[in-house]
């Protein structure tokens, strides 16, 4: 179950009233802070994953796999929702060529056919080490030990004719949006049809509320958050 953005908005509004920060939350500010909190939570969980090598249930929701095609120069584009790199797998060369050779001219293998191919890890290589490795024939990138280097706008694969790879990465959360329709007094009224909820699991709801409230300068005392969310749940929001 995803986190409802109106529940977060109303919770922050209730906490603002309680702390006497003010009763009006400007939607544009709320949405901006919301996105900062959105990305901040992913950064935090990813940092924990880097130090522990354990993926939490919440972080796992953002881990995706995608087949990436590599052009004739060994370059591959990042997916449009790419956020953090995790791993990359290449297809066994002989099996890959055999599969491509079995396809009729102008056609390509299906995803299921690719999935059945044996795979080998592609090593993520630092730029400063790559030149040294390339000078030594024994360590030069090849089909059994392929390598990838990350640039700002593309990934460089070696050997360059590797063809296709499977990229596993963490996607960027979609931007949650609290949208509204002005009432007869010009005040914002939540519009569920044009608003966008968070992708986060419901277990991250309180953390989102806390993060956004802090950006508005709202001080949350012990019990305030529990009281606010309980009251909203009881009201059916």
How does this structure look, described?
Strand 6 (147-150) and strand 7 form a beta hairpin. Strands 1-8-3-4 form a four-stranded antiparallel sheet. It is built from eight helices and ten strands. By secondary structure, it is an alpha+beta fold. The chain folds into two domains: 5-53 and 174-235, no CATH class; 63-171, no CATH class. The chain has helices spanning 5-18, 27-52, 57-60, 93-101, 111-115, 127-135, 205-215, 224-235, and strands spanning 63-69, 75-76, 82-91, 119-121, 123-124, 147-150, 155-158, 164-171, 180-182, 188-190. The longest helix has 26 residues, at 27-52. The radius of gyration is 24 Å and the shape is elongated. The model has no long low-confidence stretch (mean pLDDT 90).
What is the topological layout?
Layout: H1 5-18, H2 27-52, H3 57-60, E1 63-69, E2 75-76, E3 82-91, H4 93-101, H5 111-115, E4 119-121, E5 123-124, H6 127-135, E6 147-150, E7 155-158, E8 164-171, E9 180-182, E10 188-190, H7 205-215, H8 224-235
Parallel strand pairs: 5-6
Antiparallel strand pairs: 1-8, 2-7, 3-4, 3-8, 6-7, 9-10
Helix pairs in contact: 1-7, 1-8, 2-7
Features:
237 residues, four-stranded mixed sheet, alpha+beta, 8 helices
| C-alpha geometry | elongated
- Rounded to the nearest angstrom, the radius of gyration is 24 Å
What portion of residues belong to β-strands? Answer: 15-25%
Could you state the order of secondary-structure elements as H and E?
HHHEEEHHEEHEEEEEHH
- The total of beta strands comes to 10
Strand order of the largest sheet: 1-8-3-4
Fraction in helix: 25-40%
> Which class do the helix and strand fractions yield?
alpha+beta
List the uncertain runs.
none
- Main sheet properties: 4 strands, antiparallel
Question: What does the average pLDDT come to?
Answer: 90
| Structural domain count | 2
Straight-line distance between termini? 15 Å
Number of helices: 8
């Amino acid at each position: 179950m995803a986190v409802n953005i109106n529940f977060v908005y109303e919770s922050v509004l209730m906490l603002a009233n309680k702390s006497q920060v003010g009763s009006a939350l400007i939607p544009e500010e709320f949405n901006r802070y919301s996105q900062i909190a959105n990305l901040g939570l992913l950064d935090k969980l990813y940092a924990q994953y880097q130090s522990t090598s354990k993926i939490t249930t919440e972080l796992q929701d953002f881990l995706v796999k995608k087949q990436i095609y590599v052009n004739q120069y060994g370059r591959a584009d990042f997916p449009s929702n790419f956020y953090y790199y995790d791993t990359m797998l290449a297809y066994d060369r002989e099996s890959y060529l055999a599969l491509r050779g079995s396809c009729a001219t102008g056609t390509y293998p299906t995803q299921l056919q690719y999935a059945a191919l044996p795979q080998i890890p592609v090593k993520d290589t630092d730029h400063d080490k790559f030149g040294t490795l390339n000078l030594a024939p024994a360590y030069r990138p090849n089909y059994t030990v392929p390598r990838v280097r990350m640039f700002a706008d593309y990934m460089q694969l070696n050997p360059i004719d590797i063809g296709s790879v499977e990229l596993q990465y963490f996607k960027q959360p979609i931007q949650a949006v609290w949208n509204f329709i002005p009432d007869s007094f010009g005040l914002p009224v939540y519009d569920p049809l044009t608003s966008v909820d968070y992708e986060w699991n419901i277990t991250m709801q309180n953390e989102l509320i806390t993060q956004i409230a802090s950006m508005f300068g709202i001080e949350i005392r012990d019990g305030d958050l529990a009281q606010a969310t309980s009251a909203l749940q009881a009201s059916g929001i």
